[in-house]
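quick q for whoever's on today - can somebody do inverse folding on this one?? i tried earlier but teh output was garbage lol. tokens:
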């Protein structure tokens, strides 16, 4: 069961999809329900030892897991790296703007970087879809409709995977380096990053 579960988790992680307890029970553990936590813990340990992947429960009510890369620099395919670069830029923007931004502000920001939602991008493909569907489905971003807005608006925040995988301190240091300022220049972000 343990190695079967480890393989199942790896396959799910290829698409960066969150893994539900119900799926683990249905597809892997089946009649070994009583040993659920033991099997999950063992699979988690072996993934950590072999691949440097940490099994993290991001929703303890509904029992949803993700695999987090604990080896800071994973060698990925070029396009994946580029996408992660874009994601980090977006996460930095959200963090520096107080952890929540309107979709219009995010699109405006991406325009400055010559990345246009709605236009096919050479590396990222459909940027709008990448940001609002793929990154959201992978739990890097959360998107929430803002009530009573006409036309309808949404806000973006860090998703649970981003909270687990990405250090706010690193984000702040990177922004400070780009801007040529000391991280303490942004007092509220600094205290949050240090927390």
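ok took a stab at it. sequence:
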């Amino acid at each position: 069961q343990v190695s079967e579960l480890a393989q199942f988790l790896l396959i799910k992680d290829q698409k960066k999809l969150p893994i539900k307890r119900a799926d683990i029970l249905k597809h892997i553990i089946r009649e070994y329900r009583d040993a659920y936590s033991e099997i999950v813990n063992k699979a988690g340990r072996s993934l950590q030892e072999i691949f440097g992947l940490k099994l993290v429960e991001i929703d303890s009510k509904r029992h949803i897991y993700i695999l987090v890369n604990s080896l800071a620099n994973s060698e990925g395919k070029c396009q994946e790296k580029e996408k992660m670069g874009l994601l980090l830029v977006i996460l930095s923007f959200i963090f520096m703007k107080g952890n929540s931004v309107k979709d219009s502000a995010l699109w405006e920001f991406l325009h400055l970087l010559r990345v246009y939602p709605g236009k096919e991008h050479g590396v990222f493909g459909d940027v709008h879809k990448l940001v609002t569907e793929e990154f959201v489905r992978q739990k890097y971003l959360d998107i929430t409709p803002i009530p009573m807005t006409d036309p309808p608006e949404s806000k973006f925040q860090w998703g649970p995977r981003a909270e687990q995988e990405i250090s706010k301190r690193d984000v702040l240091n990177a922004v400070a380096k780009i801007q040529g300022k000391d991280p303490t220049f942004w007092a509220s972000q600094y205290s949050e990053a240090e927390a």
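fwiw The first strand starts at residue 19 and ends at 20. also The CA atoms of residues 169 and 193 lie 5 Å apart. so keep that in mind when u check it
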